[in-house]
Amino acid sequence: MATKKQLLRRLDEIGASLERRGDALLLLGVGSVGTELERIDEYSDLDFFVLVEPGAKEAYLECLDWLEEVYPLAYQFRNTDAGHKILFEDGIYGEYAIFEEEEFKQAKYKGGRIVWIKQGYTNQGIGEEGGSVKAERRQSLDFPLNEALTNLYVGLGRYARGEKLSAARFVQSYALDSILSVLHLLETEEPYFRDVFGEERRMEKRYPHFAERVGDMMLGYERTPESALQILRYLEEVYPVNPRMSAEIRKLAQGL
């Protein structure tokens, strides 16, 4: 864990390291170290992109001396073809990706902030635009809420045959994901840093009324039937649930 000052200083230090190398073009902070600096807290980490000259990418991925000279690394894991997850010795955690200019046009991000840019590099606008971001939201209740309903039915069937892990995922994960995708249609959303990559992020502040109920919908591995009944009650409150499906789900849950 680190303070806001420590995180931002570390990012500036990475920018200085890149400047010394000569073949880097731009350092872009994203996430909470992007344009949403006001939401940084003690649990925030470093998310950043590095734009490099053609042919330089692999050198940055194979040898992390450009990070080690800023502060020693305690852990590093190459999680994609383009980057690593890292932990510095002082406890600062980060995730980053390296791009060449043509690849960078396809990078998906929101709220990028230029931390450092090479003197004379003229394509500054590249840091202000993200690639197409997959929309998590739907604009109609019909598909997602019926999908949630069938997730309950299938999940309870799996629970009945002893497939408790699969059941928990269908009921307490997949069904809830469908509800989250249309929660903006069911409850007034409080304006608090929506994340376009995941509707579950900061849900507690954005949808406080639903947040009061969601705990009863996720009661754990051994309590999938009770969780399913709580989700079914919610669905019935907000949508004209098919009565036969509702009855079948209740019969399954109450018989377990």
Automatic annotation (TrEMBL):
InterPro entries (UniProt xref): NT_sf (IPR043519)
Name this protein carries in UniProt: Nucleotidyltransferase domain-containing protein
